[in-house]
Amino acid sequence: MFSTQLVQKLQQAQKVAVLTGAGISAESGVPTFRGEDGLWNKFRPEELANFNAFQKNPKLVWEWYNYRRKLIHEVKPNPGHYALAEMEQMFPHFTLITQNVDNLHRVAGSQIILELHGNIMRNRCVDCNKIYQEVKIDFNQQMPVCRCGGQLRPDVVWFGEMLPEDALLCAFQAAQECDIFFSIGTSAVVQPAASLPIEARERGAYVVEINIEPTAISRYVDESIIGKSGEILPLLVKKVKETGLI
Ligand code: OAD
Q: What distance in Å separates the CA atoms of residue 132 and residue 71, rounded to the nearest whole number?
């Protein structure tokens, strides 16, 4: 499953960085994007996840986000999310970077999270940019409006949009400085997140992938662990704790 070398390295590590993708939430029942059952096999990203589509048909885009919010609202974090929340407390420096918008890391207790693609539980005004945190979700209200009268949109990154600059900078800094980098439950094809494990490797980190199948970056990593993150991560945390941090 995982190597003794990884356990030893974790016992000595000062700086650990983790990148997660949709796969970490798969065991909670949140669909991933790619693959046979992936969202992008059933829905067209260009009609739902870009600003032009929103301007053209806000009702359709809101219906799609309300559908996803409802789904996410009904699920719970899984042991993989909880293991990462525990890891945050184990290392002097721990950086959790996620491409997920589902908020499940926060619900699991992770405290500092770099959300590269935003958060589906927040809204943002397209006119004044006001952010509405953890909005009370009214699934029947199809097109919410800002106090300024502007249209509200989900505070997520759509195709063709910039990623939040601060989060991205911190993510690259963590990748460049860490001793160990984990790429978990991501197909590692969407940039710039997919560059993070490569960057970490080039800067000398020990790079570990956890995924149910090989991905685009498998051949560049030091250790590829094939299996479900909700099973592997708790075992890894248990093993490191049993043997003790140095
Ligand atoms: P993908 O759907 O591309 O990939 C999910 C990955 O999770 C795949 O490699 C699966 O093999 C793996 N996986 C599934 N179940 C797993 C499990 N239980 N344990 C471990 N791995 C598992 O999702 P992302 O890589 O997150 O962007 O996609 C990146 C971005 O593409 C998303 O953030 C989204 C999408 O378009 C935007 O919306 C901007």
A: 20
